Amino acid sequence: MDQPRGRAFYLLAAVFALYVVFLYGPTLTILALSFQGPSGGLTFPMNGLSTHWFAKLWEGVGVVDIWAALRRSLALGLVVMALTVGIAFYAGLAFRKGFWGAGLVFALAVSSLIVPSIVVSLGIGLEFRLLDDAIKALAAATGWGFLQDHGTLMGLYTSALGAHLTWTLPFGLLIMFAVFNRFDPAYEEAARDLGASGPQTLRHVVVPILVPALVGVALFGFTLSFDELARTSQAIGGRNTLPLELQGLTTTVTTPEIYALGTVTTAVSGLVIGTALGLTLWLQKRRARRALAGL
Amino acid sequence: MDLSPSRRTLLKGAAALAATPVTGFPAVHAAEPVTLRYLGTAVSQSSDIAKKVKEDLGIILEYIPVVTDEVTKRAVTQPNSFDLIDTEYFSLKKILPSGNLSGLDAKRIKLADKITGVFTKGEVNGKKIGDQGTAPRKVFYLEGQNAKTFASAPTEWLTLIPTTYNADTLGIRPDLIKRPVESWKDLLSPDFKGKASILNIPSIGIMDAAMVVEASGDYTYGDKGNMTRAEIDRTIKVLIEAKRAGQFRAFWQDFNESVNLMASGETVIQSMWSPAVTKVRAQGVPCVYQPLKEGYRAWAQGFGVPKTLSGKKLDAAYDFINWFLSGWAGAYLNRQGYYSAVLETAKEHMQPYEWAFWMEGKPAEKDILGPDGTLIEKAGATRDGGSFEQRMGSVACWNAVMDENTYMVRKWNEFIAA
Amino acid sequence: MSGLTFPLPPVGRGRGGGGADGTAPLDPDPPPPPAPPHKEEESRVAPFRPRRSLAYLQAAPLALVFLIFLVIPLVLTGIVSLWEYNEYAIIPALTLQNYADLFDGCLSADLCTTLRTYLSTVKFVVLTLAITLPLGFAIAYFLAFHIRSGTVRMGLFLLCTIPFWTSNVIRMISWIPLLGRNGLINDTLRALGLIRQPIEGLLYSDFAVVLAFVHLDTVFMIVPIFNSLARIDRRLIEAARDAGASGAQILWNVILPLTKPGIAIGTIFVTTLVMGDFVTVGVMGGQQIASVGKVIQVQMAYLQFPAAAANAMVLLAAVLLMILGLTRMIDLRREL
Known about the structure:
By secondary structure, chain A is mainly alpha-helical. Chain A is 75% helix and 0% strand. Chain A has helices at 7-34, 52-59, 66-97, 102-114, 117-142, 145-148, 156-181, 186-193, 198-226, 242-250, 257-294. Chain B is of the alpha+beta class. Chain B has 2 domains: 19-166 and 299-353, D-Maltodextrin-Binding Protein, domain 2 (3-Layer(aba) Sandwich); 174-297 and 368-417, 3-Layer(aba) Sandwich (D-Maltodextrin-Binding Protein, domain 2), CATH 3.40.190.10. Chain B has 16 helices and 19 strands. Chain C is an all-alpha fold. In chain C, a hairpin with a 4-residue loop joins strand 1 (83-85) and strand 2. Chains in contact: A-B, A-C, B-C.
């Protein structure tokens, strides 16, 4: 830790720098090419310099209602985020207390990460297909009117939501583990000694301390959902999420508009990260200040 | 892909509306207009058409653009996820047995009897054209509205109303090839090693390969669109050999992938769609849609409605289809290099010089502009492949679903893995 | 706490929100020695342990999600892989045909399609691991041992994660203008006079695929290794140095063994991601290179669900076997 900065440091720093360059190569390509002139194509050399493609993007990309797709992905991302935070938090509490079958549930969470996404996606797609078939058979057998028009149960907030949760929840759970491992039960004991009820302790002691971690889980849930493609691919209903729509677009758009979109999403994501980070730092500082004041 | 001023204003308006904090559904803005969810490939979906339909009929089109195979899949597995489907005729062999499509009533299609003979009889101006594969003629009529089998003679029930169709051939980069290309067999010519590409939609790609095999004189198929297992093996073997020899640069799966491959010079010869060639040229890159002596591989797609569609939505679907055949949309598609179902009405909506260039194969009297106003051809140019009659008349086979489809897909995977 | 016999470090924090929770791994101070055994914690909690039944209620949503969206789908996939099918429907009649088709020709001398596809995919796993592992380790080591300020470390971490916020799809296609026949790299090299003919193999090749995998997946290696490194008690290293060990010896005999869990987890991640991929190989390989995921996707597109299901089951088995092998090699449970 405290060894002087020798050759190893500079060597590793160089590796790190190169990695960052490598990492940003495509991002910078996108950034540069999105500012091409109106006659620009998808490749170098640059044809002029303008914000033409951003204007185009604002007007809409081809036939796809990209903003509707964005709204759908945002909405789904937020729902996934909320569910991930809620479910992972309570599951974390449960694991802390311990319960019969905890090992099994944990093994499930880990396997949810390990099973290839395409397999999960196919499975969910199949599940819903069979459900649909069953409902149709039921409709034919019973003649119940409300079942006759059944199309599919697949959709953004059914199959796709489930697919996303199988991806975000394990991450959320692992973060909660890490956090609870370092959580000092003395706080709770103190709260109880002062006469707080269980829910009160949770609300006024546990949650405030855990806020930064919960923000982390939330960010995670949202990002993973917002950019999720493989698990959604076979489990989406009629309306696509943004990554799926983008995948379609890459094969149907031949202009730098698609790069402009990339630039915009990166910028927006950067903003979201920055805000969340700032918020977390601020909360931590405030907590530290309060703790100091409390002393 | 420049936008016309009118479209730009509209889109700005739409964007402004979308930006206001409403529910996100455009339906709020007009007095109960009907929205049709339009499932299809990006080929015939265009925001200009959507805009025009909204003006003329007050119908809102909500496009769901997916790739060819995905259209079929959704039609079979999620029949309620769309109100109108624009699918290839060959997909019918899969979709119809699922019972998810309803026959269209010919009496409600005003111009049904004006639809070109390519679909109704398999003819162009009285001359029979290639019938191999799933020719639309074979799957055009139904025994009854909800029949699951095709009728061999004309009936009152139609499967799909044609939207666009065309004849595919090889696209080439004349500036990089520098020698005449006359036959499908040139696709696998060692001259173009590492610079060729084919379509990675198995059922279509294999037909391109069959054209090559036949052109090289090795074998003549009974029906290229419905091969036996032995024929599939033979064709795939040819493809595998070519792949191992490094013939292909990449495979393409969608319209614009083919454009990008050609425009960037990654490939110099590949099977291609006519408008894709147009698009490459619009980027200032020389590209020719090369007519070949063995003829074209044709495809066609059309509108169908799901069985569950009823009431106002069904009426709207019929209104829209009738509108689509009435000329404006046909002219719009013709100007991109596709062909429309009812030629007479499209002609009325095109300038005589445009009609002469696109449909009659005559030299352009004036500069030819695309629907979006970009320059496509300068005055004096002629269209590759000539007139409608020459092109559609030289069709050798149609995109198809084979009886041995499952086996074919397996062999195709073998080809990809080779 | 019987459930926590397998407590992974918070691998999750890698992508995007990495470390935004600002807890231990990014703390400027040396983190505490490996997490305390949970029994101990349980005993600390014990005096005021709330009703156990509450725990079931709290864990139920999680269990339910995994039941509905993981267990049942996988079971169904297994069942459907044994069904017959035609062009448009799944027929619930038992058959082993899907598996027979899958392994058709595998007994003959020439490699069958399935084997060939798996070999190709496994080749990418090995190549990707061969690069991401040392690279990930070097970067994690740099961040854990050479960066002293917690804030700087967090900043560098974020620097690594920001590109991951742009859609995968867009990032992938943006390699094309760089690597293409007339791309930036080829043009630059030609302008410099280093090459005459463009290097064809930059794009639509194994190279391009591995490059994209390294680009996408290294971060999944960095984070778990970093976590393991951060948990190493620095006194161990000091002790080793005091005992006269050289830098290389410390690295090899002290640090590396203690990082094994992180390496194992990173390896598992990368293996899974590469094995199941179907987009990267397609785009970067010009649709010309086979991958298991791609085969499944094609079969799905052609409505051959049972065949796809059979493929998925085999893929699942292959991945689980590989991971089992890995955990055998490293004995994850003991290490953690």
